[in-house]
Amino acid sequence: MSDWWQTTIGELLTLEYGKPLPEKARDGQGFPVYGSNGIVGYHSQAMVKGPGIVVGRKGSSGTVNFSEGDFSPIDTAFYVLVKDSTQIGMEFAYHLLVNAKLTELTTQTGVPGLTRSRAYEIRVALPPVPLQERIVEVISAVDDQITALEAEAVALEGMYRAATSLLWRTSQGDEAEPRPLSDVMHLDIARTPMESGTTYHLAGVLNSGKGLVDKEAFDGADTEYKAMNILRKNQVVMRKLTAWEGPITVVPAEFDGFVASNEFPTFTLASDIDPGWMKHVCRTPRLWAEMQSRVVGTVQRRKRLNPDQLLIVTLPVPHRREQEQAADALDAIEGQVATLRTEADRLRNVRAGLLSGLLDRTIDIESAELGV
What we know:
This protein is an alpha+beta fold. 35% of the residues lie in helices and 23% in strands. The protein has a four-stranded antiparallel sheet with strand order 2-8-5-6. The model has no long low-confidence stretch (mean pLDDT 92).
């Protein structure tokens, strides 16, 4: 315990400014180019020999990233030099900076971006090098678990994309007969007036069929709209604007009764269409490509897809039982991905608490080593 000593970031580390790098130089393969919030591209040559630390100084200022090998920091970031490697190792310096919460420093001071002087003033407790190495090993063990979970989730997401071919298949493995969406669903819009003193819940539609987002509650007096569309469970809702980005989904039960503007038409599914199947159809590039080919308008970001144009899209539609089987299989994969992501997030929280506890000495290193 007595071997720990109080010091500052400025006494241990130097934050050097990154250098401008032309946008075109960030294309292709090679060494990573780091900006304020991580990798922004790759370049054939590296400015700094790695491993090394990059700290965002603009934009997402205070964000700390670690490069395992050679890299190039651009002018929106600092890169870190250790003043005396006999006092502090690079990997431990990374954990020290992460725990210093530099992003909070810029928020609390109101300074637009991270300055070296503010970072240098941060006081830290530094353990001897052997203990630094043990702390790095403990945190790295947790990091390895998180990485393994993320890799498994990514692999399952690839499996999901491949399995979406089931959406179009019959039980014999053939592609089903094509049907226009006008045979699958019909435009069905219900409007509700915006009244002062009444609370409404606003929904937005995410791109790539990823579902809905709660955009919070509001009073009817706080909008310029006289009336808005009501979203109902198991309806299809799309955003007309920028429709080539796939803003279409099936309304889940938890969004039943939410509202959206006229830009979000709603459709009721035919009785032989499974809402679970349609939810996954909305996540397929095949549907987005069809939507993109039918948008109208002259200004790219203002192009729209109207309901009648969506309804002429033709897709293979198997029988309902086959739809349900495909949806069940894809739901199972999605469930596994969600479980892995949740566990990875839990471990990130554990990691943050563990690192903080080890550095402020509220967690003993021996007990931490036994726990990983």
